[in-house]
Amino acid sequence: MGEMVSCGLTSPALFQLCLLLILVPYIKGRTFEKCLPGNACRSEKPPVVLIPGDLGNQLEAKLDKPSVVHYICYKKTDAYFTLWLNLELMVPVAIDCWIDNIRLIYNRTTRQTEAPPGVDVRVPGFGQTFPLEYLDPSKGDVGVYFFNIVQALVEWGYTRDDDVRGAPYDWRKAPNENKAYFLRLQHMIEEMAVKARGPVVLIAHSMGNMYTLYFLNHQPQAWKDRYIKAFVSLGAPWAGVAKTLRVVASGKRLHMLFCMNYIGVRTTIVKLPWAAYYLMFSNHVFYIYTIALDYNVSFLAGDNNRIPVISSLEIRSQQRSAVSTTWLFPYAHSWPADKVLIQTPTTNYTVKDYQRFFKDIDFEDGWEMRQDTEPLVSALEPPGVAIHCLYGSGVATAEGFLYTIFPDTDPTLILGDGDGTVNLLSATQCKRWIGHQTQPVHMFELEGNEHVAMLRNFTTVTYIKTVLFGP
């Protein structure tokens, strides 16, 4: 008889087979090629970086102001407080304090924006998921944003703030004013890739896709080949959004609703005690319903069956001050030159008429802002990485506005196709990259999906899983 071995076989010639069977649990899921000397074994799941859209992450502020717009507003705070999303400030009178704190001031000399005197705004939690999972730190349903995607990632074996991280930024500004952000983003991607021994997947929503494209267009191809596995694009406004013209022209009415969960206005923000504040508005009953993250167009969703308590004109100054709004005006590279975006009794405005448009609404700083930001991604250069473009369709989306009195009244909407915010014409522009980069370009239509709701869609989450765990 042959010699016995530990696995019970009698033939010494089968010893190597026994050894292989013993080692299988240790090599499962890895290839010998990856584990050869000099090549570190990669993680089985790629790290994920989340880039939010406009209004898509928390902002905080600290005050030491020389003056205030209302006696209930605080001039000075000892600590940072939540500026966005703070539902306690989304109420009459108190919102005047909020508008004065979150607005930007454009400087034509430096061609940069500045905070009002005595206002320090910061972006909390870079590298963390919480500031974009929940826009409202209290984790109320109203401010849920990236939570569903992050929670799905956790269920697939990811860990918050480790191999899935958020990259929040000051969404009031365009990339030309957020250069430090891109350096931090680059370093975080490199750190995550080194730790995982493999490239990263970028998942961006809405305006975050424009930020991501700008970032990738400024990276060497060798860097992208090494550090980026794929770019998942959700609801991207590649060619701008028609709604932004209405926002700048006449503002977008806030339909405010009070929530029983938010009874009380923070004394660090406004001076009135809740009892006094309640008496001021005791004739109204409001309930917070849901949030809409669509380019400063509407902070709270719903144009029907809501009580309008913040007028379009009151909120317009803040909406105009955000440079990202004019950055997202429709682009001539995709919108027809004869497509009327704004129609008034005397004038029609197309993508060729922006300078006149800004002059006619008495907001010529807007034209300067557009000049500063239009070239940033207007060429729509391919990202140079594998990209998956998911976009909503089949939802009525404003593509033009008819004014009887211009610009200080609400217009009649001219509707087309899209996701309710991003026009279909804009969302599908990544198709132009097919055949113009060596990396694959995938298009995936989410029929009937609204702009923010697509982040909670089972189909979207399943698609992301396929990208992460596929070849």
TrEMBL record:
InterPro entries: AB_hydrolase_fold (IPR029058), LACT/PDAT_acylTrfase (IPR003386). GO terms for molecular function: O-acyltransferase activity. Pfam families: LCAT (PF02450). Residues 1-29 form the signal peptide. Keywords: Signal. Transmembrane segments: none annotated. One of its GO terms (biological process) is lipid metabolic process. Belongs to the AB hydrolase superfamily. Lipase family. This is Phospholipase A2, group XV. It comes from Oncorhynchus mykiss. The lineage of its organism: Eukaryota, Metazoa, Chordata, Craniata, Vertebrata. The gene is pla2g15.
